[in-house]
């Protein structure tokens, strides 16, 4: 027969590698929402396959894989890459940093996204939010933390970022181990504590059975933004229409992740408390020691890197305005709401 | 010559009417962002023209216009329509209700959107968020409000929703007048007070010059969600691809509006204070009287409408969990952040 006169519209197939396992369904779900939305928006002409940590590469290989054009996208926590450059932390969370909404505001209507994308360009990355974990918990401890002294020598599994440097100043001994080994190490006592995310994610790992003291707030993650890292070369090659689809699918995914955390965390927290988790606020001297150590860490990085200093100072100036406004708006409103029975 | 063999792909042209003037660039801007994103996503094949209040119809005519298929979309504050049914308020803000993030969570991962769209169906409406004003201020007053007694006989311009019913119980005499006449009425003293939104929007109207006492927090709008109302018949007739474009363009617009308010409000507040605005917290007895009056209003509507009661109780159950979790997460974190100098 005659060759068909109509050619199928060129299809685009991207690959996204996540630094997270599927079991973290809040975070990993953002990549799935992104992928599904992109497919819907394009009527199937633009697809992005989604791969959990380890499927295509190790969890922390995703930045290199974008740089060498192995993948077109990643879903990650930028602070995993402070070993490359401490500036990565500002794309995610720093100690005593921004909350979820403050981060969105700094990124999209402050200088945040612009400054970060200028920095990311050297890694062939364009960034967009994948959502926010919201304020995290301060982790699980086998014994009570009654003062900052109790952190001395504490063997703790820590997430990424500048927080580890602040904790080291407080005497915490960071332990590196795969997530799958943490439960047993806490049970045996070769590990004293671990931090993770918040009630919904933490509950699945069962830490309450082996480290019942659950401290708050996670002062190192007042709101951790997960990011979609996009291969800049691949993104620049897209049509305006396809670029808009990537951006819009990202907005759908980011809104969804944050709302999901907010909806699911309280219910998980109630279950954890019913299962004998002991909720404890960090003592004030621990918070103060953490703040002092963190500010020293920022000072050290500022002394080494003018680019770090520029971004840090921009973020703090924005934060100061946010903290001022918060006193007259949501924080004040929330203060009253804690006193009434709705 | 021969007729062209290729037909242009069917174009869709929608119209969106806003209940707001262009001068409210935060809120109105959400419709513009929606429209621009929809055009980009569709490569110009799906366009939605955006019309300010009064262009196609009066600001509060938009629900009727969707019901009689005059327009395909509206951008509005659902609580403007509590005259039709008090349930509309839950799609926007109710006294002592949800904050911005809580509203997103209830809507998208609680029962909120499902319950509201079941209700809206009788008006031929499908809803989606257009963004949130975040916690509003409590308005501008010519004289200090030292106790709840000072509200007795106060002539005040009020926004929509159930709040007016609570204020009436406190003795406030609601004044209906166009926004453009408020400044002069305050100057003359025929009006004692007005509430509006927050620093960024309020500043443009110059109220600080004629009513210098600026009270907080706006307990009737802990977070007011603006909504895109979509003509259900028109939406149902769209392809899956075009439906996804409407949803995704909405997500882009909603994220943008909330971030814009958060970024712009603090800077406007500082300018207002520099221009002699006197910031004052509502006295506790005013907050308590407002809370009591509001709960009475909710009780009255619940007694009249099982559907109102069902939605109200669902929202409050969700809110109780949110308030519990807030104590251990962002509220606790923010409490500490108010005590340090970043």
TrEMBL record, chains A, B:
<dbReference type="InterPro" id="IPR006311">
    <property type="entry name" value="TAT_signal"/>
</dbReference>
<dbReference type="GO" id="GO:0046872">
    <property type="term" value="F:metal ion binding"/>
</dbReference>
<protein>
    <submittedName>
        <fullName>ABC transporter substrate-binding protein</fullName>
    </submittedName>
</protein>
<dbReference type="Pfam" id="PF03480">
    <property type="entry name" value="DctP"/>
</dbReference>
<keyword id="KW-0732">Signal</keyword>
<dbReference type="InterPro" id="IPR038404">
    <property type="entry name" value="TRAP_DctP_sf"/>
</dbReference>
<dbReference type="InterPro" id="IPR018389">
    <property type="entry name" value="DctP_fam"/>
</dbReference>
<dbReference type="GO" id="GO:0055085">
    <property type="term" value="P:transmembrane transport"/>
</dbReference>
<feature type="binding site">
    <location>
        <position position="196"/>
    </location>
    <ligand>
        <name>Na(+)</name>
    </ligand>
</feature>
<feature type="binding site">
    <location>
        <position position="157"/>
    </location>
    <ligand>
        <name>substrate</name>
    </ligand>
</feature>
<feature type="binding site">
    <location>
        <position position="195"/>
    </location>
    <ligand>
        <name>substrate</name>
    </ligand>
</feature>
<dbReference type="GO" id="GO:0031317">
    <property type="term" value="C:tripartite ATP-independent periplasmic transporter complex"/>
</dbReference>
<keyword id="KW-0479">Metal-binding</keyword>
<dbReference type="InterPro" id="IPR026289">
    <property type="entry name" value="SBP_TakP-like"/>
</dbReference>
<feature type="binding site">
    <location>
        <position position="221"/>
    </location>
    <ligand>
        <name>substrate</name>
    </ligand>
</feature>
<feature type="binding site">
    <location>
        <position position="136"/>
    </location>
    <ligand>
        <name>substrate</name>
    </ligand>
</feature>
